[in-house]
Amino acid sequence: MVVINFPCNSVSLQSITFTREWSLHPWESQTISVDLDQSFSRIGILHKPILLARGDGRFDILCGYKRLQFALNKAQMRNIDCLILLQETQPTALLDILLTDQCSARPLSQAEKARFVEICSRFLSHQDIITYFFERLQLRKKLSTIKELNSILQLDPIIIAEIHGGTLQERMVNELLRLQETSDRLALVQLFKDLALGEGKQKRFFTLIRDISFRLGSTISAYLRTKEIDKILKHPDLNIPQRIQHLKELLQEQLSPLHSQAEEEFTKQVRDLQLPPQYIISHSPSFEKDTVTLSISFENFEACANMASQINKI
Predict the structure, then answer these.
(1) Distance (Å, rounded) from C-alpha 283 to C-alpha 291?
(2) pLDDT above 50: residue 61
(3) SS3 label, residue 260
(4) What does the pLDDT look like over 111-148, one tens digit per residue?
(5) How far is CA 88 from CA 91, 131, 286, in A?
(6) CA neighbor of 228 nearest in space, from 246, 240, 207, 206
(7) 3-state class of 139 per DSSP?
(8) What angle do CA 166, 169, 170 make, to 5 degrees?
(9) C-alpha span between 4 and 77 (Å, rounded)
(10) Tell me, what DSSP letter sits at residue 93?
(11) Which one, of 230, 267, 266, 220, lies nearest residue 250 by Cα?
């Protein structure tokens, strides 16, 4: 095992080149979150940035772009202590350090994994990337995985930011990548964001909207601009859960009007029975059969056993 020496030197901020060549999240490198800004302002920069020396006396940023950005623009520092890597440091060592530094703070997002693989591709073959890093990245050790990650970086920056923030999970990202139109992807992501939909609801709404749009011969973005949907999403008296429920009902009705009609009729029939609240009647999935199920809740097993005994006598 090779041990890399990290000399720590005071470096002039003017000698640092602020490029995003090594940044794992270049889409947000120019902004510092309120929490991070307050942390820097309150306790300073705890972890030293890591720089890569160049032959002209200047330095490139390997790790700590935002720390250096704060030091230069907010703290107005002239010099800062940094860990320095020699110009001849091997690329695999640089990549290892880059990954270790980020993982010490938190696991990489799917977007950051894609970006890391992109950086690796400048120095290593795809097979070497898989061999050296995929286990640590918790990625499937297949060449197709690299292709999938590269596709993420071709998405609109707005979508990449949502993937990075954890709003969009891997399965939903794969569904979005299958869509041909960027406008359709953006429209869906904006809907998910506005309604704060979790992964399960994202998948359900995506399927409904995609199928309805296909049936109508419309793009997804155009369908989401229709009056019926716009009325729900912009209704001043509906809160977020109510908008979600109303939209779900509208989508289900438009996709399967007969199903919606049957559901409404079934609900009315159950209501007319005026059963106690602990009695629940449910129909078969999608009304595929005429069978119904009566469920009864009991306070304890003894009460259930007594009722079961009476039922057996009937």
Answers:
(1) 7
(2) yes
(3) helix
(4) 999 999 999 999 999 999 999 999 999 999 999 999 99
(5) 9, 23, 66
(6) 246
(7) coil
(8) 130
(9) 28
(10) H
(11) 230
3-state helix, strand, coil in the chain (%, to 5): 60, 10, 30
The residue written with tokens 């490029």 in the block is 19
Q: What is the mean pLDDT of residues 174-182?
A: 92
- C-alpha dihedral sign at 177, 142, 116, 197: positive
Cβ atoms 238, 246 nearer than 8 A: yes
pLDDT at 287 over 80: no
Count the neighbouring beta carbons within 10 Å of the beta carbon of residue 123: 13
Which pTM does this prediction carry? 0.74
102 near 63, Cβ under 8 Å?
yes
Look at residues 247, 280, 242, 283 and name the one whose alpha carbon lies nearest to residue 263.
283
Share of the chain above pLDDT 70, in %: 92
Burial class (CB in 10 A: 0-12, 13-18, 19+), 202: buried
Task: Please check whether residue 87 is in contact with residue 56, taking contact to mean a CB–CB distance below 8 angstroms.
Answer: no
Distance CA 252, CA 76 (A): 57
In this predicted structure, what is the pLDDT of residue 153?
93
Q: Are 50 and 60 in contact (CB under 8 A)?
A: no
> CA–CA separation, 89 vs 53, rounded Å?
9
Amino acid occupying residue 261: Q
Amino acid identity, position 274: Q
* Strand 59-63 versus strand 50-53 pairing type: antiparallel
> Alpha carbon 281 to chain centroid distance?
37
Both tokens assigned to 117: 């693989």
Tens digit of pLDDT for each residue in 214-239?
Answer: 988 999 999 999 999 999 999 999 99
Tokens 């989401």 sit on residue: 224
